[in-house]
Amino acid sequence: MAGNRESERQVVITGIGVVSPIGIGVADFWKALKSGTSGIRATTMLPCAPPNHRIAGEVRDFNPSQFTKTREQKKALRVMCREIQLGFAAASLALDDAGIKDGDVEPDRLGVEFGANLMLSPPEDLAEAEAACTDPTTHEFLYDRWGDVGLGQMFPLWLLKFLPNMPACHIGIAADARGPNNSITIDEASGNLVIGEALRVIARGHADVMITGSTGTRVHTVKSIHAMMWDKLAMFEDDPATACRPFDRNRTGQVIGEGSGVLMLEDDSHARRRGAKIYGRILGASSACVGTIAGRGDTRRALAQAMHGALKDAGLKPQEIGHINAHGLATIESDRLEAGAIHDVFGDYASKVPVTALKSYFGNSAAGCGLLELAGSLVALSQGLIPQTLNYRSPDPECGLNLVAGEPLPTTNRTFLKINVTRMGQASAVVVAGA
């Protein structure tokens, strides 16, 4: 499907909101990126994890009430789990950064496109109800007591705290956004996908401004167990900040994280009429889903298809890309498959185009990672720089990529490609031109 072409409305980025392990708000976020400061630390939020896995990219000093503007919004925090609160806060920051005030956008022309994971209830939320249904002698759970006894012990609006469409709902209500409102739940691919969807909505003329973001956490009692069961996690060593090493020969696995990133996407003419600051422009977007006969995701083919599609949508050749903001999961297999996909698409240029991998700063926050990583390139490009990858000291010869490491890299080419992929072979890509 054709995207942001000359015959359609042009879509620009007019605001950024980040709630991340390396900073809340653009200023602190950029300060950490510029100095190469990691947000991965030892954590006490995962008491059941083995000692050598008790590290995470955790958002510190987060007070969700600071991002509410009315008493009703403050009350609504009671029905938001942490992921929703992170997304709500990032959206609030993005709206403020864009300078959008009451009356600047017609409510019917303001929409929300948001990505999230399936949200899980922590065991403590179910503890009282479970105890009420458990035989004290046999410790057997009595299912026939659940309806009459167990449910009565639950918080009445418990379910609303964990629905993946609720970030978009809460943000839409708070911003009085009555335009298109949609939610996407495709794990790490969600961030680029919501950008692609919002791009089409504005290009079709169905909205002037879209609050576009994603949120996620794997720093969670149940989700961290899933991570240990399904994924290769980095081993804890002397310094947690060195644990996540995308594309490095000595990488040992991914690090779990949490966070949310939000971009304000806006019709170019609408943005210029109100004198908005412009961070960049969305040039194209694409996605792919490829699986193997064995039922596993085909990371390499999926990423290659998504990259080809995004470049075609943007009307660009690989050699016109100034850098790639990689998925960079930091597992042996995923990084090599991703590198293979880059070589498939970029050919001889694959070993020359600068690549950055920002999970090295804050780990993998699942649905939240893509927008945080993309925001990293945007804020760095506003300073004429490509952000560096942390912990890249020994190149993996089987990857053969040109990683930006040691310090941010000055650049005059502000067009970049952002890619992400899930373990199920769902890939997404966007092409962005920094201002």
Q: Can you describe what's shown?
A:
This protein has helices spanning 26-35, 71-76, 82-98, 123-132, 146-150, 166-175, 190-203, 221-230, 268-273, 299-314, 332-346, 359-362, 369-381; strands at residues 11-20, 23-24, 40-42, 55-57, 110-115, 181-184, 209-217, 258-267, 280-289, 323-325, 354-356, 385-386, 402-403, 409-410, 415-421, 426-434. With 435 residues, the chain is α/β, with parallel strands linked by helices. It folds into 2 domains: 12-119 and 163-434, Thiolase/Chalcone synthase (Peroxisomal Thiolase, Chain A, domain 1, 3-Layer(aba) Sandwich); 123-158, no CATH class. The strands form 3 sheets. Strands 1, 2, 5, 6, 7, 8, 9, 10, 11, 13, 15 and 16 form a 12-stranded mixed sheet that branches. The protein has a two-stranded antiparallel ribbon with strand order 3-4. A hairpin with a 2-residue loop joins β1 (11-20) and β2. The radius of gyration is 21 Å and the shape is globular. The mean pLDDT is 94.
Label this structure with key terms:
435 residues; alpha/beta; Peroxisomal Thiolase, Chain A, domain 1; 2 domains; twelve-stranded mixed β-sheet; two-stranded antiparallel sheet; 13 helices; 16 strands; 31% helix; 20% strand
Layout: helices, strands, pairs:
Blueprint: E1 11-20, E2 23-24, H1 26-35, E3 40-42, E4 55-57, H2 71-76, H3 82-98, E5 110-115, H4 123-132, H5 146-150, H6 166-175, E6 181-184, H7 190-203, E7 209-217, H8 221-230, E8 258-267, H9 268-273, E9 280-289, H10 299-314, E10 323-325, H11 332-346, E11 354-356, H12 359-362, H13 369-381, E12 385-386, E13 402-403, E14 409-410, E15 415-421, E16 426-434
Parallel strand pairs: 5-6, 5-7, 10-11, 10-15, 11-13
Antiparallel strand pairs: 1-2, 1-8, 1-9, 3-4, 7-8, 9-16, 12-14, 15-16
Helix pairs in contact: 3-6, 10-11
